[in-house]
Amino acid sequence: MTKKTELHFILFKRLWELLKGPEFIGLTVSANLFIILNAAIFYFLEYEENYMIDSFLDAVWWSFTTITTVGYGDIVPVTTIGRIQGILMMLLGTGLFVTFTALFSNAILGRKVEGIQEKVKGLGKTLGTTRKEFQEEEKAIHTEVDQLRRLIAELEEIVNKRRK
Question: What 3-state class would DSSP assign to 75?
Answer without folding.
Answer: coil
